[in-house]
Specification:
2 copies of one chain form a homodimer.
Chain A lengths: L1 H8 L4 E4 L2 H9 L4 E4 L7 H7 L2 H16 L2 E8 H4 L7 E4 L11 H13 L6 H9 L4 E4 L18 E7 L5 E5 L15 H25 L2 E2 H9 L10 H16 L5 H12 L6 H12 L11 E7 L2 E6 L7 E4 L4 E4 L12 E2 L3 H4 L14 H4 L3 H11 L3 E10 L5 E7 L1 H7 L5 E6 L7 E7 L3 H18 L7
Parallel strand pairs in A: 1-2, 4-5
Antiparallel strand pairs in A: 3-6, 3-8, 6-7, 9-10, 9-13, 10-11, 12-17, 14-15, 16-17
């Protein structure tokens, strides 16, 4: 053990961690100093003011709402009929608000495809003209109780899943999953992509809606709980949940008054898509998180979302504000023929799964997901273990057999993220950075830390402005 | 550390492990002796003769056949049409051959129910008269390339799953799973049990057969591989495999020319049964093991099966012989209202899953199964790790994410079981010991060691008789 011998035989040495003032005072006295560059977290003083009973109590209120969520898939309807504020000229998109000029390739591709699908444009140039003359209303899905994976393009005639939170009474919405490869959400807009969306609108949506209504509602909390015990984390691995959803709906779909070939085609499409459940799960997570938003003083993160350019978060106690930073690029495994140069920065509302305690936070229960996103089962367990450091609770519904049935880490606390420097672990799909191509792989990514630093500043300002009721502990 | 102090300060002491000859010689010389009762395994000398190249080579041939098995579900047909040797007056049963007089309650119940279902008897007394006058031919399922869970009663008009092993060309058969609770296989024979079997015969069997034929065959090796990565061990946990099977067949069932209500009812029944896949998986395991049987000199176990009275094994190199011992009673979790006094001794052909590297051997990848059979996820991992000690290979198809995608322990070697004293770990259902009641719980059980000791003796005799080609190593 040479280090110990040095300790006994070498002359003592001063090590200064942080303040240069101390180091230079020692140097002035002729004492050799080893400097270690460290500073307390940005806004550490402000952070201290947030560790108080009032904030804790607010977080308990918000968290209890998340944990009590009981999500039921109750219907599938055209967006125009159910999504609040939806209009014929609206295109909802993933992530924080963004204008056309700053949108990434896959986001633009998804939006152009949606405009073509709606009959509002005939081709790219036509769509761009429409957009630049201000004839299209863009808005974040999240502003409409909706979530969309990747580009997240959601328009009036698209059928959306209607998920009701039976505990709080709110509803959340998401489009139907199109499968992998060349699909609208990854920025593809070729005729076959549009044709699939029209089949969704004319056949699949109405059929699913009827089937769901006949079941009286599919209990998604129970379904996700089961899927988590079957190795899904419900972001990048949805095999179990998709099969369980088919199991729940197949008896009703088989009984629909449709041509035999159409009944078969709907179920064959569903069976061919291992990510069928992704959008359902996202809507369930959105339905769980929305009631937790708007609790004064709460430091709970209620939204994490990306538009392909920026990563944005929203915090329960901070109203409608977004706290954004540049989106990172996922690291992971590429489909054959693609490599790191092809990947767009992080995109999509699917990080709502991590926000609600699934996805990267539940990877430890989904060891097989590493075959899709890279790493080893031990890494997956380590990610989940680490996420307990920045969350306030453990899910009472979603339990991990690989961790002796411990609940998944749930409820990201801005304070804990800033204090520990540990960022939320997201596992996600990767879109090609150019419009029109599609998915290129899947991997791991983290939000930029600046989102949390800015949210913390705003929380501190809000408390200072409000004249905090109880002092820091 | 008192033990170490004793070592230094106490006078030396002789410890004799085994031979009394040594111990008594020391005693005669006035030396104090601590005796430890230990004997080398029964037939240790014979065992040595089996560790030779010829046996190893035979086992490689047998194992290669197991590992190369490629099982496809190709049809569902009435047993009389496809099961070799089936006749109108035959009742096949689980486990080694047994006569009526020695059968346990649930075995008798299942057989009486089958006779009533076939219209050969009207009630218990009538069935018993028929049997005692010799009008019913009993035989083991295993003698007919078939496997039946629990009582395993299989008769002429029952629809059976037809599983083809595309590698070896053989086929294996099993009845349809009836769900949990009061079912024929657990010895219940009430009118609702019989009605369900008639619905199977008249509606479900023909519909499933047509659906399976339309798919062109369901790849069971791929399906089981997937299910194992989703936390099934395919004996007591079949949630993933059942959902995947529904996913595979639902598109075709939905397209069948049947009344809408009947299509729905078939799928609703399938969806309600988390053990839907059990019999399919058993037939797949039987289809994998049968080609490995009959390799001269091979010490590979090709069958483990229980009739509720005896546990029996068959060994590749030992032809049609069974090596039996008294069946143990599983230890585990009971359904509400039942307890240990209610459980029948171990029963059913479902231990074919363990024989083929699934079930208890794959528990380490199915941590959630402990909620059904008892214990902890760590126990489940330990069982799987232990089974590598008595198996000759690791599955190339079935890989466990929780063990870094290691293949399941596959191919029980009689030599290794006798040498290590480690018995195969089986996790299984528990039937009520009286006829007519049904399942009472699920748990863990092991074969009696005597099966393996007897098989070893037979292997040694066979080699001695044949004049072994190569000496022991």
């Amino acid at each position: 053990m040479p280090a110990e011998r040095d300790l006994l035989h070498a002359p003592p040495e001063a090590v200064v961690v942080g303040p240069e003032l101390f180091a230079s005072a020692l140097v002035a006295q002729g004492v050799p100093v080893r400097r270690i560059d460290w500073r307390p977290p940005e806004g550490a003083e402000g952070l201290a003011s947030l560790w108080c009973d009032e904030v804790d109590a607010a977080n308990r209120v918000a968290l209890d709402r998340v944990l009590a969520a009981h999500q039921i898939l109750v219907d599938v309807r055209p967006a125009i009929e159910v999504v609040p504020g939806m209009t014929r000229d609206t295109v909802l998109h993933a992530g924080p608000p963004i204008g056309w000029e700053r949108m990434s390739g896959p986001m633009r591709g998804g939006i152009v495809g949606a405009l073509i699908y709606e009959g509002l444009a005939t081709a790219w140039e036509d769509a761009e003209r429409l957009i630049t003359r201000g004839a299209v209303r863009f808005d974040s899905c999240h502003h409409h109780a909706a979530v969309g994976p990747m580009a997240g393009a959601t328009t009036a005639s698209m059928p959306v899943l209607v998920v009701e939170n039976r505990h709080a009474g709110n509803r959340a919405y998401s489009t139907l999953n199109e499968g992998l490869g060349k699909v609208l959400r990854y920025g593809a807009y070729a005729p076959d992509v549009i044709d699939r969306l029209r089949w969704f609108r004319d056949v699949v949506g109405p059929a699913l809606g009827e089937a769901v209504r006949r079941t009286g509602g599919v209990d998604l909390r129970a379904l996700i709980a089961q899927a988590v015990q079957m190795g899904d984390e419900c972001h990048n691995r949805n095999r179990a949940a998709s099969a369980l959803l088919i199991k729940a709906l197949a008896p009703e779909i088989a009984g629909l008054d449709l041509a035999a070939a159409e009944r078969s085609r709907i179920l064959a499409f569903a069976a061919s898509n291992e990510h069928l459940f992704l959008n359902v799960g996202m809507a369930a997570c959105k339905a769980a998180m929305d009631p937790a938003h708007g609790v004064p003083h709460s430091t709970l993160v209620t939204v994490m979302a990306r538009n392909g350019t920026e990563f944005g978060i929203r915090v329960s106690g901070l109203g409608e504000q977004w706290f954004t930073g540049p989106a990172g690029t996922p690291q992971g495994l590429y489909f054959p023929g693609f490599g790191p140069g092809d990947a767009n920065p992080d995109i999509g509302d699917s990080a709502i799964t991590e926000t609600a305690g699934l996805g990267g936070f539940a990877m430890g229960g989904a060891p097989a997901v590493v075959q899709f996103v890279g790493g080893t089962p031990a890494d997956a367990l380590a990610y989940t273990r680490l996420m307990y450091e920045i969350t306030l609770a453990e899910s009472t519904a979603y339990r991990l057999p690989t961790l002796d049935f411990r609940g998944t880490p749930t409820g990201i606390d801005v304070r804990l993220v800033v204090q520990t420097g540990i960022l939320p672990q997201i596992d996600t799909g990767m879109a090609h950075r150019e419009a029109g191509i599609g998915q290129v792989g899947a991997g791991l990514v983290k939000p930029p830390r600046v989102c949390f630093d800015r949210a913390l500043e705003a929380l501190v300002r809000a408390r200072a402005g409000a004249g905090a009721g109880s002092g820091p502990r």
